[in-house]
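Feature request, filed as a ticket because there's no other form

It would be nice if the structure record came with a short human-readable summary line next to the tokens. Right now we just get the raw output. Example of a typical job, pasted below so the devs can see what we mean:
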Amino acid sequence: MSEGKGNILVVGVGGQGTILASRILAEVLLQGGYDVKMSEVHGMAQRGGSVVTQVRFGQKVFSPLIPRGEADYLLAFEKLESLRWLANLRPGGVVVVNDLELPPVSVLTGQAAYPRDIAEKLKERAGTVKLVPAQALARECGSIKSQNVVLLGVLAPFLGIAKEVWEKAIAQIVPAPTVEMNLAAFRAGWEQ
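Raw output as currently delivered:
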């Protein structure tokens, strides 16, 4: 990543909180003094399809779209999604991926097999791969629905923005009754 700018690709499947996590991420970057652009693609999200957001930040950002092969960070909420979008990561980039398998319909119907070598393929392209047991960590914090915030906690130290800024943004964006649980999830990810 060039100094003072970056590209973050956030990928998952419908219902995993991809867009909420991207909103938190964008708010943190804004509070960090960056110009931020975000793009979302929902696709068949309600049916378990891919959800992708692109977050770009820097002194001045003109487009929300990350050119193929130029993402500095790939934040993946499911392992197969990390593999599906890996070509968008720049060589040597950072991958933070949930150690979770949500088989697509083709796997469930026996038309395809779920790949078993995902971590190895990620390591071939990325400089850093963090495989995170986000579901277990989120459960310990009160709800598996906070896996997205656990993963943000793992990504956060790579971006160099103070923990307090992250916590403030989380408290502003998540639903009020879930603030403490989400802050605990973020801190659990930060410690990974």
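Something like this underneath would help us a lot:
Residues 20 and 174 are 8 Å apart (CA to CA).
The two ends are 22 Å apart (CA to CA).
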